[in-house]
Amino acid sequence: MKLSSGRLAGQIVDLHQRRIFAGVVEWRQGRITRVRADDRVRARHLIMPGFVDAHIHIESSLLPPAEFARLAVAHGTVATVSDPHEIANVLGARGVAHMIADGRRTPLKFNFGAPSCVPATGFETAGAALDANAVARLLAREDVRYLAEVMNFPGVLGGDPALRAMMKVARKLGKPIDGHAPGLRGAQARAYAAAGPSTDHECFTLEEAQDKLAAGMKILIREGSAARNFAALAPLLRTHSERVMFCCDDLHPDLLVGGHLDRHIRRAFAAGTDRFDVLRCASVNPVEHYGLAVGLLRAGDPADFVVVDGWKKFRVLRTYLDGRLVAANGRARFPRLAAKTPNQFRAQPRRAAEFAVSATNGPAKLNVIEALNGQLITRHLTEAPALRQGKLVADPKRDLLKIAVVNRYAARAPIARGFIRGFGLKAGAIASSVAHDSHNIVAIGADDEALAAAVNLVIKHRGGLSAVGRGRSLALPLPIAGLMSDLPGPVVARRYTELDRFAKRLGSRLDAPFMTLSFMALLVIPDLKLSDRGLFSATRWGFLPVQT
User: Fold this and answer.
1) What DSSP assignment string belongs to 82-102?
2) How far apart are alpha carbons 347 and 219 in whole angstroms?
3) Measured between alpha carbons, how far is 524 from 502 in angstroms, rounded to an integer?
4) So what's the pLDDT on residue 375?
5) Distance (Å, rounded) from C-alpha 427 to C-alpha 216?
6) 51-292: which CATH topology?
């Protein structure tokens, strides 16, 4: 990449000195040489450091890094702290290397971590495993910046030897350790933080975040497609801004087309939060915490900055990386690149009868997952079953649907089945091979025939999202590891939006039914989830029967 030189005048936002002044930014060979005041400058646009997403899984955008970059830079994003955990569960270290190599093809500054929990637990079937030695090898790479979220928080609290070894290597190399500890409070939060994790993005109440701050952790305020914690945690921007960062965690393409961290910033401004505090959370704090090679609008820094139209609308006009104009007026200024499509997918088509659940003898109750809108956590309900010819069936009138997980790494394996409330489907089914964390096929439906049809549509494409019902079917193929598309970002966003609307026409009341679906197999988030091996309670850290 040819480094750029230039100069730009405007209202300069100095986040370190907490001041705004008319001036000029000058750069040569990609680095800022001078930031000087100039009272003659009449331009009203703002010049400020670019934005950094402090925790995001690029795979959840359904786009590879090179295509994600083309959408993100238009919103002022200059860097991400990215956990390649999703592709690692499918392809192992080879998947991590693929993400790093793809990200290097663009000017956006991706900072990938070494996934710490592949697989996330021993209660599911993943496509790969990264033991302590494999993680240590990844951490030894200069282009791997940190130990990614330590999701197995019971293992941390219990002194799991492999996790301890990984964290020891990270500390020795001076690389930060990311946390993931939903619901931990008090003594448990202190014990988790003392073991090494320094951040947490899973807080869903202010009280939980305050406990973790007291334990010495930094809090990432998350607002993505499924988990939306901004409203609950926004008070921290006033009380602990020096220890807060912004993140999306998981952001589907329909939202990414319309905004990224600029959306967080506008929302914080609208709440009356101090401008400097907000912008530091969006740039300075993650750069300093992770030691990123990202400029903060100072002499000697890389020339990474954005131009914004003003405080009221806060619309990003231009984005610069290493002095190059990489986005202007909502469009990337670098070309789209063809994507490679590594994958691992062996599942074969299934029959509707394989999704049936036989009733046990005598009266029974069902252990039921309750999905919550805007949350990754679920509740554990007990419900009366619906019976038909000796089978337990879905009852859409009660919003009691069937959920299934199909192992994608074996041609034929037993199908895990259970029941779920909260999706609201009145007919049909939806399915996805984006199913955190092992990325088997997860499906929810109103009847077994629809479940089989939706699952088989995903299998046909060797990965993807699907929806079937009322005489119609739609699919979005995801040929890159069954997680990402090789199509242009706007096309993926449009097709995803069509699927989302179709799921809602089938009755779903969720804001993001496919994103929520993808977390119904995530065992490390309380309470009740379904893996390819059965119904699992994170609270009890073990399997439960579907029928009691």
Assistant:
1) E-THHHHHHHTHHHHHHHHHH
2) 39
3) 30
4) 84
5) 48
6) TIM Barrel (3.20.20)
Per-residue model confidence (pLDDT) at position 272: 95
CA distance 221 to 515: 18
Predicted pLDDT of residue 5: 85
pTM of the predicted structure, to 2 decimals: 0.93
Spell out the alpha helix ranges (H) of 291-354. none
Q: Which residue has the tokens 């999905």?
A: 371
Selection from 131, 134, 129, 56 nearest residue 89 by Cα: 129
Contact 145, 112 (CB under 8 A): yes
Residue position matching structure tokens 């990609």:
30
What pLDDT sits at residue 376?
84
Distance CA 541, CA 512 (A): 27
Among 378, 380, 55, 53, residue whose Cα is nearest residue 204:
378
Domain ranges in the chain?
51-292, 352-544
pLDDT given for residue 3 in this prediction: 67
The tokens for 63 are 């786009």
The values of phi and psi at residue 12, to 5°, are: -85, 130
* Residues 85 and 304: beta-carbon distance below 8 Å: no
Predicted local confidence at residue 363, as pLDDT: 63
Residues 6+ apart with CB under 8 A from 465: 430, 431, 432, 433, 434, 458, 475, 476, 478, 496, 499, 514
- Which secondary structure element, helix H or strand E, spans residue 231, and what is its range? helix 230-233
CA dihedral 359, 124, 153, 54 (to 10 degrees): -120
Say which amino acid occupies 330: G
The two structure tokens encoding residue 200: 């947490």
Cα separation, 457 vs 40, in Å, equals: 63
State how far the alpha carbon of 57 is from the alpha carbons of 149, 167, 247, 323, 539, in Å: 11, 21, 10, 27, 25
The total of other beta-carbon atoms located within 10 Å of residue 315's CB is 16
Contact 215/188 with Cβ under 8 angstroms? no
Residues of the chain with pLDDT under 50: none
Pairing of strands 357-358, 324-328: unpaired
Residue 169: CB atoms within 10 A of its CB come to 20
Q: How far is Cα 8 from Cα 3, in angstroms, rounded to an integer?
A: 16
- pLDDT recorded at residue 228: 87
